[in-house]
Amino acid sequence: MLISRTLVDAATAANLPTDDVLFVDCRFDLADAGKGDREYAAGHIVGAVRGDLDRDLADMATPSNGRGRHPLPEASAFSAWLSQAGWRPDLQVIAYDAAGGALAAARFWWLARLAGIDNVAVLDGGWAAWLEANYPVDAGTVRREATSVHVAFDEAGTVAADELAEGVASGRFLLLDARAAPRYRGDIEPLDPVAGHVPGARNHPFADNLDAHGRFQQPEVLRRDFNAMMGTHAAEDVVHMCGSGVTACHNLLAMEYAGLCGSRLYAPSWSGWVSDRSRGVALGEG
């Protein structure tokens, strides 16, 4: 079943047949890594499985070696998670969180797309929208019948540091930084050892993708905003980054929702960039 490849509203999600949908609870708090698990245990969408950023959507078990604070998991590890979750190709997968899709539903969405899964979407408005509509919730851990899944990640969806540096310097790439403006400018840096941004990067905070109610802006609004930044660049020339390759996926999702498809991710992002102190650092508005 294919309902959406980008976003799905709570009403549509709530009315899908149980056997046709897989909900993934991706709630996460950078300041309290265990909070998402506790919140899931206390209450979640009926039938939802847990997809934790640190445990399931990143490789935190091996040294980063320049891969950033949330290194991408191996395809084999993501395959194992999909198997345990009982994923099947005919399921509509819907990821949700409590942060407008930023932590970490959009990361799950992007990983699934990188693995070749098309019928995956983010719940627009997330957990808050579900509760607001008084749709049913449950508590405790969900165990689904396991399946056998083997996926491979499409390396064309990511950009390495050397290619990024060359592409930005030559003007071939447009690099969009999803962090809030004070972090982009280098006014503050609460997480990484160096403040600032990659020289040549432009700032598009992921929060700009959302309206006052925590839902994504309409596609035409997003398209107008991204086109204004892109100028003569095509969507395929756009590379996204953030602090550790998580909230940048929100910009990837927003562009796809706006019909601007084909942009890529610099997964190590700022934390990976500054792990090599020989790389350039810019401060201010760019």
From TrEMBL:
Tell me where on the tree of life, at the top rank, the source sits: Bacteria
Instruction: Respond yes or no to whether keyword Membrane is given for this record.
Output: no
Keywords carried by this UniProt record: Repeat, Transferase
Alphabetized Gene3D superfamilies for the sequence:
Rhodanese-like domain
Annotated Pfam families: Rhodanese
Keyword field contains Repeat: yes
Question: What PANTHER family does this protein map onto?
Answer: SULFURTRANSFERASE, THIOSULFATE SULFERTANSFERASE
Query: Under what name is this protein listed?
Result: Sulfurtransferase
Q: Which organism is it from?
A: Luteibacter rhizovicinus DSM 16549
